[in-house]
Amino acid sequence: MLENLLRLFSEYMGTGLITVWFLFSVIYLFVFEKKKEKRVMLVYMPVLALVLFFNPAFAGIVYSVLDDEIYYRLLWLLPVTVTTAYTVTDIYGRLCGRKKIYFAGVAVVLVIVSGSLIYSDSNFHAAENVYHVPDSVVDICDAIEVEGREVTAVFPAELLQYVRQYSGTVCMPYGREMIVDRWNNFNELYNIMESDVPDASELASEARSQSCVYIVLSEDKEIAGSLAAYDFEEFGKIDGYIIYIDTLADLSI
Predict the structure, then answer these.
(1) Percent of the chain's residues with pLDDT above 90
(2) Beta bridge mates, 152
(3) Of 16, 71, 121, 212, which sits 20 to 30 A from 6 (CA to CA)?
(4) Among residues 40, 129, 33, which one has the least CA distance to residue 79?
């Protein structure tokens, strides 16, 4: 159990330096901070959270009903940013003259070298709009929304995690749970959508059985057969995607 807890904490630490500064800050504030309310928030609470996290008995109880992913989130209780920032500010306030400038410069450098550029991770991209989702999601959802009611559409895997962030009225038969392997979710429509060459008959039938009014496919996606033969006609092309609409669906409010 302890080995597993150490692994989770190691994953949480990232490069490790930010965690080092945080632990140093807790020790510093334990020695120098005199105000009770700040000691509770910035010293006692983080220590208690760490003690609970590394307690095998506590971990065993939590693990009996939850898994690694949920237990890992206990570390989110640590006020890393607040504690570190407050400590830097407190030290800065105790210094005089040029020492303030030197310390501020060192602090900035330490913050920079303690992390890595977020866009170096393939899962992060510069925001394309104020909604922080791909423009294609915004354009597609705006095109298929029906005023006054919800409408269900099936999207390719690369768009699943963004639709709900943008629209509350465009529903999906499945969402992000399908692209997290460890959750082992199954949906026949998802399997058809993500197959190399979806069969038009199977795709139309399964989409309709799951109440999908729209089918959204990449323009590069090859289909075996024609969706039009099964009453799914082309609704439009947007940002490299083709939208098909079920002409048998009732879109009245």
Answers:
(1) 66
(2) 171
(3) 121
(4) 40
Containing 191, the helix (H) or strand (E) segment is: helix 188-193
Residue 165 contacts by C-beta under 8 Å, 6 or more apart in sequence? 131, 132, 133
Cβ contacts of residue 129 below 8 Å, gap of 6+? Answer: 135, 138
Strands (E), the chain: 151-154, 170-171, 214-218, 232-238, 241-246
Q: Please check whether residue 109 is in contact with residue 47, taking contact to mean a CB–CB distance below 8 angstroms.
A: no
Position with higher pLDDT, 98 vs 251: 98
The model's pLDDT over 97-131, given as tens digits with 9 standing for 90+, comes to 999 999 999 999 988 888 777 777 666 778 888 99
d(CA 35, CA 203): 64
Which CA distances in Å does 183 have to 7, 179, 180, 226, 248? Answer: 20, 9, 6, 33, 34
Alpha carbon distance 143, 119 (integer Å): 30
Residues in contact with 173: Cβ distance below 8 Å, sequence separation at least 6, in sequence order: 152, 154, 187, 189, 207, 210, 211, 212
Say whether pLDDT at 77 is over 70: yes
Higher pLDDT pick, 185 / 235: 235
pTM beyond cutoff 0.90: no
Q: How far is CA 221 from CA 98, 121, 151, 224, in A?
A: 63, 26, 23, 10
pLDDT at 1 over 80: no
